[in-house]
Design a protein that fits this description.
Blueprint (H helix, E strand, L loop, with lengths): L1 E5 L6 E5 L5 E3 L10 E2 L9 H8 L4 E2 L2 H16 L9 H12 L3
Parallel strand pairs: 4-5
Antiparallel strand pairs: 1-2, 2-3
Helix pairs in contact: 2-3
Length: 102
Amino acid sequence: MKLLRLGETGSEKPALIDNENKYRDLSSIIDDATIVFDLVYNPAQTKLLADAEKIGAPIVNGIEMLIAQAVYSVEIWMGGNVVQHIDMNCLVKELEKILGHK
């Protein structure tokens, strides 16, 4: 499957080419407010995210969710408000380095 935009320039619609090479109009599902989120964090950009980025959709991978789960788990098990003491952006960047992303 592949995400793409079909139609005249300026009035393209989001679409999908399925495994049988049939085009599916996704305009009733995907609009300008749609964000494509893939829970996978390694690789940082999956085929789904790459295709979504090509059609102009904002994308988010699973790194932020992985880190948030870890931080909130520490809060649950250890008590206290850990989030207020953590720079989430820094954690994301460090994990991306470890995983070899960008």
